[in-house]
Design a protein that fits this description.
Elements: H1 12-24, H2 39-60, H3 70-86, H4 93-112, H5 121-143, H6 145-148, H7 166-185, H8 191-208, H9 211-226, H10 233-252, H11 254-262, H12 267-271, H13 276-285, H14 290-295, E1 303-304, E2 307-308, H15 312-341, H16 346-361, H17 373-385, H18 409-412
Antiparallel strand pairs: 1-2
Helix pairs in contact: 1-2, 1-5, 2-4, 3-4, 3-15, 5-7, 7-8, 7-9, 7-16, 9-16, 15-16, 15-17, 16-17
Length: about 425
């Protein structure tokens, strides 16, 4: 399969398919919405978006041309333990359905990989789609503040029009804030356009009280901007101002920041990671057969004993076993290694931000072993790290025939003696 030729225009349908993949990963569980939406309807929309994304990807890439990708190869291999474990039906027929969804998700990424060339096309599609999702969250907040910040979630912001949880909203806001800041530093967007994205996203992130997203944003930007410090004066200025502002904020608003960070929780509840540690201990202590240790119990809803696992590594271990852990560790290590070996650039900085964010979030969020926003973030990082395609050499044009010298008529019949 050949790669995209240099200079080939990226069709608009590619961005549309990417947006549909994002829609598919929004999920169907969350807060109560203003207008009650049946879960079956939400699942129909999300699954339908994946099918349409695959159809569009085939339509725009009918010759099935792919770019080589270690990430996608390892994700394809991750399907093996998923199917082996799910075939036992220990997690029910839903496990096989999730395997089919995962396979279609990875196949669509393979088809779109033809346009992975280290450019920023997919970054802009990523920002636009998630900004639209945050726009629905903001609209729900304006229409019904009570439904958007219910007591059930401790007054944290949720999706009132589409069922989204605070961690989801925080993740989307943090990712597009980080990417937009990097585009601004790289002079790929103007300040007004960047402010339109960054300011409302920061406001929504603050209302979610999502510590993981905030920490991932700060660490990701620190790593990404640090990779540009030696080559970008704008990055150096931003880094200096950020350190100054952070120091002043820590001194002037220390108590407020601490209250926001603790979210009214006791120290004991905070140190147990809001109860996650109890679920993790129970999962690790549960007896497992050799097959379950190697391949897991099959793709499920990322829960154990009816409670969310909220850890990507333990969720992968539970559902795809030690084999899944090895494969997930491999593609994280490969992406990180390739990013470190690339020369400094804006694309490399965006990739480092996404990889760092996903690594931080993997400790308290699940999703690295199944179709999820985190895999889309990492796929975006892989597209940014792909080497630009080289145009095929063209054959040299033939030289024009030399003009024929006109011979006088009187000399045509003469003989040379």
């Amino acid at each position: 399969m050949s790669a995209q030729t240099a200079g080939e225009h990226t069709p608009k349908l590619v961005g549309t398919a990417w947006g549909l993949l994002i829609l598919n990963t929004l999920g169907s569980a969350g807060a109560q919405t203003i207008i009650p939406l049946p879960r079956s309807l939400i699942q129909m929309v999300t699954m339908g978006s994946l099918v349409v994304a695959f159809v569009l990807a085939v339509a725009v890439n009918p010759r099935l041309r792919f770019r080589p990708s270690a990430l996608l190869l390892l994700l394809t291999l991750l399907l093996v333990p998923s199917v082996i474990a799910s075939a036992n039906l220990e997690a029910g027929f839903g496990a096989l359905f999730r395997c089919g969804r995962f396979a279609l998700f990875v196949a669509t990424l393979w088809l779109l990989s033809r346009w992975w060339d280290g450019g920023l096309t997919f970054v802009r599609s990523h920002i636009r789609m998630y900004f639209a999702v945050l726009g629905s969250v903001a609209a729900g907040l304006l229409l019904s503040p009570g439904a958007a910040m219910p007591d059930l979630y401790g007054g944290r912001l949720v999706g009132a029009l589409w069922p989204l949880t605070p961690p989801q909203i925080g993740q989307y806001a943090a990712v597009i804030i980080g990417l937009t800041v990097l585009l601004l530093l790289g002079r790929r967007t103007d300040r007004a356009s960047a402010a339109v994205v960054i300011v409302p996203s920061l406001f929504l992130l603050a209302l979610t009280h999502t510590r993981t997203a905030t920490l991932g944003l700060l660490v990701g930007l620190l790593v990404a901007i640090g990779s540009l410090v030696l080559t970008s004066a704008a990055a150096r200025r931003f880094f200096a101002w950020a350190v100054l502002v952070a120091a002043v904020a820590a001194v002037a608003f220390g108590s407020l920041l601490q209250a926001w960070f603790l979210r009214g929780q006791t120290q004991e509840y905070f140190t147990s990671l809001t109860g996650r540690a109890k679920v993790w201990d129970a999962l690790l202590a549960a007896p497992r057969t050799t097959s379950e240790q190697l391949f897991g119990v099959g793709l499920g809803d990322k829960s154990f004993g009816g409670l969310p696992i909220d850890n990507s590594w333990l969720a992968v271990y539970h559902e795809q076993g030690l084999t899944g852990i090895v494969l997930v560790s491999a593609f994280i290590a490969v992406l990180g290694g390739v990013a470190l070996l690339r020369p400094p650039s804006l694309s490399r900085a965006c990739a480092l931000f996404l990889i760092s964010y996903c690594a931080i979030a993997s400790y308290t969020e699940a999703g690295l072993g199944d179709a999820s926003p985190y895999l889309l973030h990492l796929a975006l990082a892989a597209s940014l790290l792909a080497a630009p395609a080289v145009a095929a050499p063209t054959a040299p044009s033939p030289l024009p025939d030399a003009p024929r010298r006109r011979v006088p008529r009187w000399a045509r019949g003469s003989e040379v003696s």
